Amino acid sequence: xxxxxKAGDNDAVVTGDYVSRYHAQLVRTEEGIWMLEDAxxxxxxxxxxxxxxxxxxxxxxxxxxxxxxxxxTLTDILHAAGDYSTEFEALKGTYEAFLAEKVRIQSSxxxxxRLLQTLPLAFLGIGGLVMGIVGKGNSLLSGxxxxxxxxxxxxxxxxxxxxxxxxxxxxxxxxxxxRTKYVCPKCGxxxxxxPWEVLASRGRCPACKAVWKRADPx
Length: 218
Ligand SMILES: [Zn+2]
Fold this sequence. Notes:
The protein is α+β, with helices and mostly antiparallel strands. 49% of the residues lie in helices and 14% in strands. The strands form 2 sheets. It has a 5-stranded mixed sheet with strand order 2-1-3-4-7. A 4-stranded antiparallel sheet has the order 6-5-8-9. A hairpin with a 2-residue loop joins strand 5 (45-47) and strand 6. Helix 2 runs antiparallel to helix 3. The relative contact order is 0.12. The structure holds zinc ion. Zinc ion binds at residues 184, 186-187, 189, 205, 207-208, 210.
């Protein structure tokens, strides 16, 4: 439960001329819905212009405590109470997408692309060897055969290596991009490449104390 009001010991402190010391509270149901309840305030709690005693609220709702000088969204209230669990939950997808992308880049570089580029040239090299044997006595043919045998596989290896050399750069780009997104939603502290599940098991940010994972229902 998140208590809302003017008094300093509320979970979410809100200020305004018509706000009561203990004005309202947000209660999360087992279905994960936030219920807004008036706590017997003097000037009332309103959702989208209508006075309410108890009502489910969503991000799009305009919540007013007492008067127009205190209007908040659900996210405003959750953030005021240090709850960043919605934003933290979204980072799970960010982490999983990064892992999948990393594996994709690494595997494509090492095996498929390299092999495909090297094989045809290696076969041509063998062709050169055959040509050299067949054209024995013919200096031109055996000369071409010798050059092909030596040069073509080397060219294949060179091209394959050049392709693989792009991998660290591409991967580094992805890692840099990922690290700017994979941070505490409140204070921006970096998570590095720590698995999302490990962070989730901690529950809150060691730096800013923001709640990452709620103990449901609360
Ligand atoms: Zn933090």
